[in-house]
Design a protein that fits this description.
FAD/NAD(P)-binding domain; binds flavin-adenine dinucleotide; globular; Guanine Nucleotide Dissociation Inhibitor, domain 1
Protein backbone atom coordinates (compact mmCIF):
# COMPACT_ATOMS: atom_id res chain seq x y z
CA UNK A 1 0.00 0.00 0.00
CA UNK A 2 1.21 3.54 -0.74
CA UNK A 3 2.01 5.60 2.33
CA UNK A 4 -0.76 8.18 2.69
CA UNK A 5 1.57 11.12 2.57
CA UNK A 6 3.07 9.86 -0.67
CA UNK A 7 -0.21 10.63 -2.39
CA UNK A 8 0.31 14.37 -2.04
CA UNK A 9 4.01 14.92 -1.37
CA UNK A 10 4.45 18.55 -0.28
CA UNK A 11 7.42 20.51 -1.55
CA UNK A 12 10.00 21.32 1.14
CA UNK A 13 9.15 25.04 0.81
CA UNK A 14 5.39 24.46 1.26
CA UNK A 15 6.07 22.18 4.20
CA UNK A 16 8.22 24.82 5.90
CA UNK A 17 5.53 27.46 5.26
CA UNK A 18 2.75 25.29 6.70
CA UNK A 19 4.74 24.43 9.79
CA UNK A 20 5.58 28.07 10.42
CA UNK A 21 1.92 29.10 9.94
CA UNK A 22 0.85 26.49 12.45
CA UNK A 23 3.55 27.46 14.89
CA UNK A 24 2.29 31.07 14.75
CA UNK A 25 -1.24 29.85 15.49
CA UNK A 26 -2.60 30.78 12.02
CA UNK A 27 -4.66 28.03 10.44
CA UNK A 28 -6.00 29.99 7.45
CA UNK A 29 -9.72 29.93 6.68
CA UNK A 30 -10.36 26.33 7.66
CA UNK A 31 -14.08 25.68 8.34
CA UNK A 32 -15.14 25.07 11.94
CA UNK A 33 -14.29 21.66 13.31
CA UNK A 34 -17.21 19.21 13.31
CA UNK A 35 -17.83 16.28 15.63
CA UNK A 36 -19.33 15.18 18.93
CA UNK A 37 -19.66 12.37 21.45
CA UNK A 38 -20.54 9.02 19.94
CA UNK A 39 -20.98 5.39 20.95
CA UNK A 40 -21.76 5.42 24.66
CA UNK A 41 -24.61 6.89 26.74
CA UNK A 42 -23.24 7.49 30.25
CA UNK A 43 -26.70 8.60 31.44
CA UNK A 44 -28.05 5.10 30.76
CA UNK A 45 -25.44 3.38 32.92
CA UNK A 46 -25.98 6.03 35.58
CA UNK A 47 -29.69 5.13 35.90
CA UNK A 48 -28.41 2.60 38.43
CA UNK A 49 -27.52 5.46 40.75
CA UNK A 50 -31.10 6.62 41.18
CA UNK A 51 -34.16 4.98 42.71
CA UNK A 52 -35.40 2.22 40.39
CA UNK A 53 -38.83 2.87 38.85
CA UNK A 54 -41.88 0.87 39.98
CA UNK A 55 -41.75 -2.65 38.49
CA UNK A 56 -44.24 -2.09 35.74
CA UNK A 57 -44.62 -2.22 31.97
CA UNK A 58 -44.68 -5.08 29.46
CA UNK A 59 -43.83 -8.53 30.85
CA UNK A 60 -41.57 -10.80 28.80
CA UNK A 61 -40.13 -14.24 29.36
CA UNK A 62 -37.09 -16.20 28.17
CA UNK A 63 -35.45 -19.37 29.47
CA UNK A 64 -32.12 -17.56 29.71
CA UNK A 65 -31.52 -13.81 29.87
CA UNK A 66 -27.99 -12.57 29.22
CA UNK A 67 -27.36 -9.14 30.74
CA UNK A 68 -24.75 -7.28 28.67
CA UNK A 69 -23.92 -7.75 25.00
CA UNK A 70 -20.16 -7.23 24.99
CA UNK A 71 -17.88 -9.97 23.68
CA UNK A 72 -18.52 -12.16 26.76
CA UNK A 73 -22.32 -11.88 26.50
CA UNK A 74 -22.22 -12.53 22.75
CA UNK A 75 -19.90 -15.54 23.21
CA UNK A 76 -22.26 -16.97 25.81
CA UNK A 77 -25.30 -16.47 23.55
CA UNK A 78 -23.41 -18.11 20.69
CA UNK A 79 -22.43 -21.11 22.83
CA UNK A 80 -26.01 -21.57 24.09
CA UNK A 81 -27.61 -21.41 20.63
CA UNK A 82 -25.03 -23.84 19.24
CA UNK A 83 -26.13 -26.21 21.97
CA UNK A 84 -29.72 -25.94 20.76
CA UNK A 85 -30.90 -23.50 23.43
CA UNK A 86 -33.04 -21.08 21.45
CA UNK A 87 -35.17 -19.35 24.03
CA UNK A 88 -32.64 -16.75 25.07
CA UNK A 89 -32.70 -12.96 25.24
CA UNK A 90 -29.62 -10.75 25.33
CA UNK A 91 -30.17 -7.26 26.78
CA UNK A 92 -27.78 -4.33 26.37
CA UNK A 93 -28.21 -0.70 27.31
CA UNK A 94 -26.47 0.69 24.22
CA UNK A 95 -28.01 0.92 20.75
CA UNK A 96 -25.66 -1.74 19.39
CA UNK A 97 -24.04 -4.80 20.94
CA UNK A 98 -20.28 -5.36 21.09
CA UNK A 99 -19.51 -3.31 24.23
CA UNK A 100 -15.89 -2.15 24.10
CA UNK A 101 -15.45 -3.97 20.77
CA UNK A 102 -17.71 -1.93 18.50
CA UNK A 103 -17.11 -0.14 15.23
CA UNK A 104 -18.12 3.33 14.05
CA UNK A 105 -18.47 5.02 10.66
CA UNK A 106 -16.92 8.38 9.82
CA UNK A 107 -16.81 10.05 6.41
CA UNK A 108 -18.53 6.93 5.04
CA UNK A 109 -15.70 4.66 6.20
CA UNK A 110 -15.52 2.14 9.07
CA UNK A 111 -13.28 2.80 12.08
CA UNK A 112 -12.98 1.34 15.60
CA UNK A 113 -14.74 2.82 18.64
CA UNK A 114 -12.70 0.76 21.10
CA UNK A 115 -10.79 -2.51 20.68
CA UNK A 116 -8.94 -2.67 17.39
CA UNK A 117 -6.85 -5.83 17.21
CA UNK A 118 -6.51 -9.45 18.23
CA UNK A 119 -3.11 -11.16 18.30
CA UNK A 120 -3.26 -14.47 16.44
CA UNK A 121 -4.42 -16.85 19.19
CA UNK A 122 -2.24 -19.66 20.48
CA UNK A 123 -3.26 -23.26 21.23
CA UNK A 124 -4.73 -22.43 24.62
CA UNK A 125 -7.33 -20.01 23.24
CA UNK A 126 -9.39 -22.93 21.91
CA UNK A 127 -12.76 -21.18 21.93
CA UNK A 128 -11.36 -18.12 20.13
CA UNK A 129 -9.66 -20.32 17.52
CA UNK A 130 -12.89 -22.19 16.91
CA UNK A 131 -14.69 -18.86 16.36
CA UNK A 132 -12.04 -17.63 13.93
CA UNK A 133 -12.25 -20.86 11.92
CA UNK A 134 -16.02 -20.49 11.77
CA UNK A 135 -15.74 -16.89 10.56
CA UNK A 136 -13.28 -17.86 7.82
CA UNK A 137 -10.39 -15.94 9.39
CA UNK A 138 -8.46 -19.18 9.92
CA UNK A 139 -8.41 -22.61 8.32
CA UNK A 140 -6.66 -25.86 9.11
CA UNK A 141 -4.43 -27.15 6.36
CA UNK A 142 -2.14 -30.20 6.66
CA UNK A 143 -2.28 -30.01 10.43
CA UNK A 144 -1.39 -26.31 10.55
CA UNK A 145 -3.48 -23.19 11.00
CA UNK A 146 -3.42 -20.76 8.11
CA UNK A 147 -4.62 -17.18 8.56
CA UNK A 148 -6.52 -15.31 5.87
CA UNK A 149 -4.05 -12.70 4.61
CA UNK A 150 -6.63 -9.93 4.33
CA UNK A 151 -7.29 -10.06 8.09
CA UNK A 152 -3.63 -10.07 9.14
CA UNK A 153 -2.28 -6.59 9.84
CA UNK A 154 -0.61 -5.33 6.69
CA UNK A 155 2.92 -4.00 6.79
CA UNK A 156 4.27 -1.50 7.85
CA UNK A 157 2.88 -2.23 11.28
CA UNK A 158 4.31 0.03 13.99
CA UNK A 159 6.49 3.11 14.38
CA UNK A 160 7.74 5.23 17.27
CA UNK A 161 8.47 8.97 17.17
CA UNK A 162 11.67 9.40 19.16
CA UNK A 163 14.56 11.89 19.06
CA UNK A 164 12.83 13.92 16.33
CA UNK A 165 12.23 11.08 13.86
CA UNK A 166 10.02 8.07 13.25
CA UNK A 167 11.64 4.67 13.67
CA UNK A 168 10.31 1.18 12.95
CA UNK A 169 8.80 -0.74 15.87
CA UNK A 170 7.70 0.55 19.29
CA UNK A 171 10.80 -0.42 21.26
CA UNK A 172 13.15 2.55 21.78
CA UNK A 173 16.43 1.90 19.92
CA UNK A 174 19.11 0.23 22.05
CA UNK A 175 21.72 2.91 21.52
CA UNK A 176 23.73 2.49 24.71
CA UNK A 177 25.39 -0.68 26.01
CA UNK A 178 23.52 -0.15 29.30
CA UNK A 179 20.11 -0.19 27.59
CA UNK A 180 21.10 -3.18 25.45
CA UNK A 181 22.05 -5.05 28.63
CA UNK A 182 18.73 -4.15 30.29
CA UNK A 183 16.74 -5.34 27.27
CA UNK A 184 18.63 -8.65 27.38
CA UNK A 185 18.10 -9.03 31.11
CA UNK A 186 14.36 -8.35 30.85
CA UNK A 187 14.09 -10.85 27.96
CA UNK A 188 15.85 -13.47 30.10
CA UNK A 189 13.55 -12.83 33.08
CA UNK A 190 10.44 -13.14 30.88
CA UNK A 191 11.77 -16.42 29.40
CA UNK A 192 12.51 -17.69 32.92
CA UNK A 193 8.96 -16.82 34.07
CA UNK A 194 7.53 -18.58 31.01
CA UNK A 195 9.57 -21.68 31.70
CA UNK A 196 9.37 -21.88 35.50
CA UNK A 197 5.94 -20.48 36.34
CA UNK A 198 3.92 -20.87 33.15
CA UNK A 199 1.64 -18.27 31.56
CA UNK A 200 -1.23 -18.68 29.13
CA UNK A 201 -3.73 -16.69 27.12
CA UNK A 202 -6.44 -16.90 28.34
CA UNK A 203 -4.91 -16.81 31.79
CA UNK A 204 -7.23 -19.54 33.15
CA UNK A 205 -5.33 -22.11 31.05
CA UNK A 206 -2.12 -21.61 33.09
CA UNK A 207 -1.58 -23.08 36.56
CA UNK A 208 -1.86 -20.72 39.53
CA UNK A 209 1.03 -21.47 41.88
CA UNK A 210 2.85 -19.90 44.80
CA UNK A 211 5.18 -18.27 42.25
CA UNK A 212 2.23 -16.59 40.52
CA UNK A 213 0.78 -15.55 43.87
CA UNK A 214 4.11 -13.95 44.84
CA UNK A 215 4.23 -12.00 41.57
CA UNK A 216 0.61 -10.98 42.03
CA UNK A 217 1.28 -9.54 45.48
CA UNK A 218 3.74 -6.84 44.30
CA UNK A 219 3.59 -4.08 41.77
CA UNK A 220 5.42 -4.39 38.46
CA UNK A 221 7.42 -1.16 38.86
CA UNK A 222 8.81 -2.31 42.23
CA UNK A 223 9.63 -5.73 40.74
CA UNK A 224 11.52 -4.03 37.89
CA UNK A 225 13.38 -1.82 40.37
CA UNK A 226 14.46 -4.87 42.34
CA UNK A 227 15.68 -6.54 39.14
CA UNK A 228 17.78 -3.42 38.42
CA UNK A 229 15.72 -2.65 35.32
CA UNK A 230 15.64 1.10 35.70
CA UNK A 231 16.69 2.45 32.30
CA UNK A 232 14.34 5.33 31.42
CA UNK A 233 13.67 4.11 27.88
CA UNK A 234 12.96 0.52 28.87
CA UNK A 235 10.67 1.77 31.66
CA UNK A 236 8.78 4.10 29.31
CA UNK A 237 8.20 1.17 26.94
CA UNK A 238 6.96 -1.13 29.72
CA UNK A 239 4.69 1.63 31.06
CA UNK A 240 3.30 2.06 27.55
CA UNK A 241 2.59 -1.71 27.30
CA UNK A 242 0.82 -1.73 30.67
CA UNK A 243 -1.28 1.31 29.78
CA UNK A 244 -2.16 -0.18 26.40
CA UNK A 245 -3.39 -3.53 27.76
CA UNK A 246 -4.32 -2.70 31.36
CA UNK A 247 -5.14 1.02 31.39
CA UNK A 248 -2.55 1.76 34.13
CA UNK A 249 1.20 2.28 34.45
CA UNK A 250 3.69 -0.35 35.69
CA UNK A 251 3.26 1.09 39.19
CA UNK A 252 -0.48 0.40 39.04
CA UNK A 253 -0.44 -3.24 37.95
CA UNK A 254 0.95 -6.38 39.54
CA UNK A 255 4.24 -7.99 38.52
CA UNK A 256 2.12 -10.97 37.44
CA UNK A 257 0.26 -8.72 34.96
CA UNK A 258 3.44 -7.05 33.69
CA UNK A 259 5.02 -10.42 32.96
CA UNK A 260 1.80 -11.99 31.66
CA UNK A 261 1.67 -9.31 28.93
CA UNK A 262 4.81 -10.82 27.37
CA UNK A 263 5.00 -14.35 28.79
CA UNK A 264 1.47 -15.37 27.79
CA UNK A 265 2.31 -14.71 24.14
CA UNK A 266 5.64 -14.63 22.34
CA UNK A 267 7.88 -13.36 25.13
CA UNK A 268 10.04 -10.25 24.98
CA UNK A 269 12.76 -10.01 22.36
CA UNK A 270 15.69 -7.68 22.83
CA UNK A 271 16.66 -5.72 19.70
CA UNK A 272 19.02 -7.76 17.57
CA UNK A 273 17.61 -11.08 18.81
CA UNK A 274 17.50 -13.14 15.61
CA UNK A 275 15.03 -15.62 17.05
CA UNK A 276 12.44 -12.82 17.38
CA UNK A 277 9.30 -13.39 15.38
CA UNK A 278 6.93 -10.51 14.80
CA UNK A 279 3.68 -11.49 16.51
CA UNK A 280 1.02 -11.58 13.79
CA UNK A 281 -2.00 -9.48 14.58
CA UNK A 282 -5.54 -9.67 13.19
CA UNK A 283 -7.22 -6.34 12.57
CA UNK A 284 -10.04 -4.79 10.57
CA UNK A 285 -10.98 -1.26 9.48
CA UNK A 286 -13.67 -1.15 12.22
CA UNK A 287 -11.33 -2.91 14.67
CA UNK A 288 -12.77 -5.79 16.69
CA UNK A 289 -16.20 -4.42 15.77
CA UNK A 290 -15.78 -6.71 12.75
CA UNK A 291 -15.79 -9.69 15.13
CA UNK A 292 -18.67 -8.52 17.33
CA UNK A 293 -20.84 -7.76 14.27
CA UNK A 294 -20.28 -11.26 12.93
CA UNK A 295 -20.93 -12.99 16.24
CA UNK A 296 -24.12 -10.92 16.66
CA UNK A 297 -25.49 -11.45 13.14
CA UNK A 298 -27.01 -14.97 13.64
CA UNK A 299 -28.28 -13.91 17.09
CA UNK A 300 -30.12 -10.79 15.98
CA UNK A 301 -33.65 -12.12 16.78
CA UNK A 302 -32.54 -12.61 20.36
CA UNK A 303 -30.80 -9.26 20.86
CA UNK A 304 -32.65 -6.40 22.54
CA UNK A 305 -30.65 -3.20 22.60
CA UNK A 306 -31.55 0.02 24.34
CA UNK A 307 -32.49 -2.07 27.41
CA UNK A 308 -30.83 -0.84 30.61
CA UNK A 309 -31.12 -3.54 33.23
CA UNK A 310 -31.80 -1.98 36.63
CA UNK A 311 -32.48 -4.90 38.97
CA UNK A 312 -32.04 -8.70 38.98
CA UNK A 313 -33.75 -10.61 41.80
CA UNK A 314 -34.69 -14.20 42.53
CA UNK A 315 -38.46 -14.55 42.61
CA UNK A 316 -40.96 -17.34 43.28
CA UNK A 317 -41.33 -18.28 39.63
CA UNK A 318 -37.82 -17.61 38.38
CA UNK A 319 -35.38 -14.76 38.16
CA UNK A 320 -36.98 -11.38 37.67
CA UNK A 321 -35.39 -8.47 35.87
CA UNK A 322 -36.49 -4.88 35.84
CA UNK A 323 -35.24 -3.00 32.78
CA UNK A 324 -35.65 0.44 31.26
CA UNK A 325 -36.60 0.51 27.60
CA UNK A 326 -34.58 3.49 26.35
CA UNK A 327 -36.66 3.93 23.16
CA UNK A 328 -40.04 3.77 24.85
CA UNK A 329 -38.68 5.62 27.92
CA UNK A 330 -40.60 3.16 30.06
CA UNK A 331 -39.95 0.21 32.38
CA UNK A 332 -40.17 -3.38 31.21
CA UNK A 333 -40.14 -6.65 33.16
CA UNK A 334 -38.49 -9.92 32.25
CA UNK A 335 -38.61 -13.35 33.82
CA UNK A 336 -36.04 -16.11 33.20
CA UNK A 337 -35.12 -19.51 34.55
CA UNK A 338 -31.45 -18.53 34.48
CA UNK A 339 -29.43 -15.36 34.04
CA UNK A 340 -25.89 -14.70 32.80
CA UNK A 341 -24.38 -11.54 34.23
CA UNK A 342 -22.12 -10.45 31.36
CA UNK A 343 -21.64 -6.96 32.79
CA UNK A 344 -18.52 -5.57 34.53
CA UNK A 345 -18.24 -6.95 38.07
CA UNK A 346 -19.02 -3.62 39.77
CA UNK A 347 -22.23 -3.35 37.74
CA UNK A 348 -23.27 -6.95 38.44
CA UNK A 349 -22.82 -6.23 42.16
CA UNK A 350 -25.23 -3.29 41.87
CA UNK A 351 -27.77 -5.10 39.71
CA UNK A 352 -28.25 -8.18 41.88
CA UNK A 353 -30.72 -7.57 44.70
CA UNK A 354 -28.75 -9.97 46.91
CA UNK A 355 -25.17 -10.14 45.57
CA UNK A 356 -23.20 -13.13 46.89
CA UNK A 357 -20.19 -12.38 49.10
CA UNK A 358 -17.70 -13.24 46.32
CA UNK A 359 -19.32 -10.70 44.00
CA UNK A 360 -19.32 -8.01 46.68
CA UNK A 361 -15.68 -8.70 47.52
CA UNK A 362 -14.57 -8.78 43.88
CA UNK A 363 -16.38 -5.50 43.21
CA UNK A 364 -14.65 -3.89 46.19
CA UNK A 365 -11.25 -5.05 44.92
CA UNK A 366 -11.52 -4.09 41.25
CA UNK A 367 -10.74 -0.60 39.99
CA UNK A 368 -11.37 0.62 36.46
CA UNK A 369 -9.53 2.83 34.00
CA UNK A 370 -11.49 5.47 32.07
CA UNK A 371 -10.61 5.61 28.37
CA UNK A 372 -11.14 8.12 25.60
CA UNK A 373 -10.96 7.22 21.92
CA UNK A 374 -11.02 9.70 19.06
CA UNK A 375 -11.73 9.16 15.38
CA UNK A 376 -10.26 11.97 13.31
CA UNK A 377 -11.23 12.60 9.70
CA UNK A 378 -8.68 14.77 7.86
CA UNK A 379 -9.20 16.80 4.71
CA UNK A 380 -5.82 15.83 3.30
CA UNK A 381 -2.83 13.67 4.15
CA UNK A 382 -0.33 14.71 6.79
CA UNK A 383 3.13 15.95 5.97
CA UNK A 384 6.18 13.73 6.17
CA UNK A 385 8.54 13.95 9.11
CA UNK A 386 11.89 12.18 8.98
CA UNK A 387 12.13 8.41 9.33
CA UNK A 388 9.61 5.64 8.75
CA UNK A 389 6.61 6.23 6.46
CA UNK A 390 3.09 6.01 7.91
CA UNK A 391 2.34 2.67 9.57
CA UNK A 392 -0.77 1.06 11.06
CA UNK A 393 0.16 2.11 14.63
CA UNK A 394 2.07 5.31 15.48
CA UNK A 395 3.19 6.17 19.02
CA UNK A 396 5.16 9.11 20.46
CA UNK A 397 7.98 8.32 22.88
CA UNK A 398 7.65 9.99 26.27
CA UNK A 399 3.91 10.56 26.23
CA UNK A 400 1.27 8.80 28.34
CA UNK A 401 -1.08 8.79 25.32
CA UNK A 402 -1.28 5.54 23.38
CA UNK A 403 -0.84 6.88 19.86
CA UNK A 404 -3.12 6.36 16.90
CA UNK A 405 -3.93 3.71 14.33
CA UNK A 406 -4.69 4.35 10.67
CA UNK A 407 -8.28 3.12 10.27
CA UNK A 408 -7.75 2.85 6.50
CA UNK A 409 -4.69 0.63 6.82
CA UNK A 410 -6.60 -2.62 6.14
CA UNK A 411 -8.89 -1.13 3.54
CA UNK A 412 -8.75 -2.89 0.17
CA UNK A 413 -10.27 0.15 -1.55
CA UNK A 414 -7.53 1.30 -3.98
CA UNK A 415 -8.75 4.90 -4.49
CA UNK A 416 -7.15 7.84 -2.62
CA UNK A 417 -9.22 8.68 0.44
CA UNK A 418 -8.86 11.33 3.15
CA UNK A 419 -7.01 9.96 6.19
CA UNK A 420 -9.02 8.51 9.08
CA UNK A 421 -7.12 8.03 12.34
CA UNK A 422 -8.19 6.46 15.65
CA UNK A 423 -6.36 7.75 18.74
CA UNK A 424 -6.35 6.08 22.17
CA UNK A 425 -6.02 7.51 25.67
CA UNK A 426 -6.12 5.53 28.95
CA UNK A 427 -6.77 8.18 31.60
CA UNK A 428 -6.08 8.15 35.32
CA UNK A 429 -9.17 7.42 37.45
CA UNK A 430 -8.96 11.00 38.76
CA UNK A 431 -9.98 12.23 35.28
CA UNK A 432 -13.19 10.15 35.11
CA UNK A 433 -15.35 13.03 36.36
CA UNK A 434 -13.76 15.44 33.90
CA UNK A 435 -14.34 12.97 31.07
CA UNK A 436 -18.04 13.02 31.88
CA UNK A 437 -18.44 16.74 32.61
CA UNK A 438 -16.10 18.54 30.24
CA UNK A 439 -17.33 19.44 26.77
CA UNK A 440 -16.52 17.69 23.52
CA UNK A 441 -14.55 20.83 22.53
CA UNK A 442 -12.35 20.49 25.63
CA UNK A 443 -11.48 16.87 24.87
CA UNK A 444 -11.13 17.49 21.12
CA UNK A 445 -8.45 20.05 21.98
CA UNK A 446 -6.80 17.57 24.36
CA UNK A 447 -6.61 15.04 21.49
CA UNK A 448 -5.37 17.47 18.84
CA UNK A 449 -2.77 18.97 21.20
CA UNK A 450 -1.31 15.48 21.67
CA UNK A 451 -1.34 14.52 17.99
CA UNK A 452 0.06 17.91 16.92
CA UNK A 453 3.25 17.01 18.79
CA UNK A 454 4.11 14.57 16.02
CA UNK A 455 1.99 16.19 13.29
CA UNK A 456 2.06 20.02 13.59
CA UNK A 457 -0.02 20.25 10.39
CA UNK A 458 -2.85 18.06 11.77
CA UNK A 459 -5.03 20.74 13.45
CA UNK A 460 -5.38 22.73 10.20
CA UNK A 461 -6.37 19.62 8.24
CA UNK A 462 -8.96 18.28 10.66
CA UNK A 463 -12.49 18.04 9.37
CA UNK A 464 -14.21 16.12 12.13
CA UNK A 465 -13.46 14.44 15.46
CA UNK A 466 -15.87 11.89 16.93
CA UNK A 467 -15.06 11.12 20.55
CA UNK A 468 -16.10 8.08 22.55
CA UNK A 469 -15.79 7.92 26.35
CA UNK A 470 -15.71 4.78 28.46
CA UNK A 471 -16.01 5.77 32.14
CA UNK A 472 -15.13 2.26 33.37
CA UNK A 473 -13.42 0.89 30.27
CA UNK A 474 -11.46 -1.99 31.77
CA UNK A 475 -10.50 -3.44 35.12
CA UNK A 476 -6.90 -2.89 36.21
CA UNK A 477 -4.93 -5.99 37.30
CA UNK A 478 -3.61 -4.25 40.42
CA UNK A 479 -1.69 -6.33 42.98
CA UNK A 480 -3.93 -8.95 44.59
CA UNK A 481 -6.67 -8.87 41.92
CA UNK A 482 -5.87 -11.85 39.71
CA UNK A 483 -5.12 -14.17 42.61
CA UNK A 484 -8.11 -13.17 44.74
CA UNK A 485 -10.41 -15.89 46.07
CA UNK A 486 -13.37 -13.73 45.11
CA UNK A 487 -12.52 -13.81 41.39
CA UNK A 488 -11.86 -17.56 41.58
CA UNK A 489 -15.31 -18.08 43.14
CA UNK A 490 -17.04 -16.04 40.42
CA UNK A 491 -15.21 -18.05 37.74
CA UNK A 492 -16.44 -21.29 39.30
CA UNK A 493 -20.01 -20.20 40.09
CA UNK A 494 -22.54 -22.59 38.55
CA UNK A 495 -26.31 -22.61 38.76
CA UNK A 496 -29.12 -20.28 37.78
CA UNK A 497 -26.95 -17.15 37.96
CA UNK A 498 -23.48 -17.24 36.42
CA UNK A 499 -20.91 -14.56 35.57
CA UNK A 500 -19.22 -13.84 32.26
CA UNK A 501 -17.02 -10.83 31.61
CA UNK A 502 -13.36 -10.06 30.91
CA UNK A 503 -13.26 -8.77 34.53
CA UNK A 504 -13.22 -12.40 35.64
CA UNK A 505 -9.59 -12.53 34.48
CA UNK A 506 -8.81 -9.31 36.36
CA UNK A 507 -8.07 -7.45 33.11
CA UNK A 508 -9.66 -7.03 29.71
CA UNK A 509 -8.74 -8.45 26.31
CA UNK A 510 -10.79 -10.22 23.66
CA UNK A 511 -9.51 -13.72 24.48
CA UNK A 512 -10.47 -13.37 28.16
CA UNK A 513 -13.92 -11.97 27.41
CA UNK A 514 -14.74 -14.54 24.75
CA UNK A 515 -13.55 -17.53 26.81
CA UNK A 516 -15.36 -16.27 29.93
CA UNK A 517 -18.60 -16.08 27.91
CA UNK A 518 -18.24 -19.47 26.23
CA UNK A 519 -17.44 -21.22 29.54
CA UNK A 520 -20.26 -19.50 31.44
CA UNK A 521 -22.74 -21.18 29.08
CA UNK A 522 -21.53 -24.57 30.31
CA UNK A 523 -22.01 -23.64 34.00
CA UNK A 524 -25.66 -22.60 33.62
CA UNK A 525 -28.18 -24.92 35.28
CA UNK A 526 -31.80 -24.46 34.30
C1 LIG B 1 -10.76 1.76 24.23
C2 LIG B 1 -10.53 0.28 24.37
C3 LIG B 1 -9.64 -0.37 23.53
C4 LIG B 1 -9.45 -1.74 23.65
N1 LIG B 1 -8.61 -2.36 22.76
C5 LIG B 1 -8.53 -3.71 22.77
C6 LIG B 1 -7.84 -4.38 21.73
O1 LIG B 1 -7.34 -3.76 20.79
N2 LIG B 1 -7.79 -5.75 21.77
C7 LIG B 1 -8.37 -6.46 22.78
O2 LIG B 1 -8.30 -7.70 22.79
N3 LIG B 1 -9.04 -5.84 23.77
C8 LIG B 1 -9.15 -4.49 23.78
N4 LIG B 1 -9.89 -3.86 24.73
C9 LIG B 1 -10.49 -4.67 25.79
C10 LIG B 1 -11.96 -5.01 25.54
O3 LIG B 1 -12.59 -4.47 26.63
C11 LIG B 1 -12.20 -6.52 25.44
O4 LIG B 1 -11.53 -6.98 24.28
C12 LIG B 1 -13.67 -6.95 25.32
O5 LIG B 1 -14.34 -6.21 24.36
C13 LIG B 1 -14.42 -6.90 26.66
O6 LIG B 1 -15.68 -7.53 26.49
P1 LIG B 1 -16.64 -7.82 27.72
O7 LIG B 1 -17.87 -8.47 27.19
O8 LIG B 1 -15.93 -8.54 28.78
O9 LIG B 1 -17.00 -6.40 28.33
P2 LIG B 1 -17.75 -5.09 27.85
O10 LIG B 1 -17.29 -4.69 26.53
O11 LIG B 1 -17.56 -4.18 29.03
O12 LIG B 1 -19.29 -5.49 27.75
C14 LIG B 1 -20.24 -5.28 28.78
C15 LIG B 1 -21.57 -4.94 28.15
O13 LIG B 1 -22.53 -4.76 29.19
C16 LIG B 1 -23.40 -3.69 28.83
N5 LIG B 1 -24.00 -3.17 30.06
C17 LIG B 1 -23.39 -2.55 31.09
N6 LIG B 1 -24.31 -2.24 32.03
C18 LIG B 1 -25.49 -2.68 31.59
C19 LIG B 1 -26.82 -2.65 32.13
N7 LIG B 1 -27.09 -2.12 33.33
N8 LIG B 1 -27.82 -3.17 31.37
C20 LIG B 1 -27.57 -3.73 30.16
N9 LIG B 1 -26.33 -3.78 29.62
C21 LIG B 1 -25.32 -3.28 30.34
C22 LIG B 1 -22.46 -2.70 28.15
O14 LIG B 1 -23.17 -1.79 27.32
C23 LIG B 1 -21.56 -3.65 27.34
O15 LIG B 1 -22.07 -3.89 26.05
C24 LIG B 1 -10.12 -2.48 24.65
C25 LIG B 1 -11.00 -1.82 25.52
C26 LIG B 1 -11.22 -0.46 25.38
C27 LIG B 1 -12.19 0.22 26.30
Amino acid sequence: MLPLTALFPPSPARRALLISLLASGCSGDAPALQGGWVGTHPERGHRLRGEPPRADGPFRKASVVIVGGGIAGLACARALTRRGMDDIALLDLEDAVGGNSRGHTLGGAPCPLGAHYLPVPGDQAREVSELLHDLGVARSHLGRTEWAERHLCHSPQERLFIDGAWQEGLLPPAETPALRAQYRRFAALVAEAQRDAGFAMPTRRAPWTAAHQALDSQNFAAWLDRAGLTDERLRWYLDYCCRDDFGASAAGVSAWAGLHYFASRHGFHAPGDDTAEREPVLTWPQGNGWLSERIAEPLRQRIHHGRSVLRVSEGKHGIELLTWDETAAAPERWQAQAVVMATPVFISARLLATPPDALRQAAARLSYAPWLTANLLLREPLLHRPGMPPAWDSVRYGTTALGYVDARHQSLDPGPKPPLLTAYFALPAAQRGELLRQSWQHWAKFVTDELAQTHPDLPAKLERIDLCRFGHAMSIPAPGVRGSDALAALNAAAGRIVYAHADLAGYSVFEEAYTAGALAAARLRL
